[in-house]
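input
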Amino acid sequence: MNTSRKNVLALAAVLSVTLLLARAASPPAPGEAAPNFTLRTLDDKPVELKQLTAKRPVVLVVLRGWPGYQCPLCTRQVNDFVSHASELDASGAQVLMVYPGPAADLKAHAQEFLQHKNWPKNFLFVVDPDYSFTKSYGLRWEAKNETAYPSTLIVDKENKVRFVHISKQHGDRVGSAAALKALGEAKR
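output
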């Protein structure tokens, strides 16, 4: 094989890998399959998206996690979802909240975040140490003192994304009312 052909093949391989990585780093869009992931609860139990969606739709809420402090907007959003837990459960959905951050002390920070929140038994709370999930879903907020773009996705029982809302700022969060509305629309 001549040198120029080897160079073209090498360049094609590099471009293919680059395109795959760029695609993997994009958030899933409505209608696309939700990339599977497994994260762990605070008591170290694995939670796999595909296993959850096999049973019921999932409201996936990505919090800012631990950007060096407890985010008051995350607290407000979580409190809203918690106060409407019975309606969310009645909708047939599983609520899964992801708390990203640096691995060091992430569980301790997450436990502190959950204090005094009367966490519903039908909600799941998982941590994303070192942003493995956040990066794979294209939600890593690569700015100083940031972790993840606050995001809400709804994934149906066929593992298809039915709703996506990604906030590129601290506010503009999806509340329980909007999630319930999107769940109702997804059933149609």
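quick obs: Strands lie at 38-41, 46-48, 58-62, 94-101, 123-129, 151-155, 161-166.
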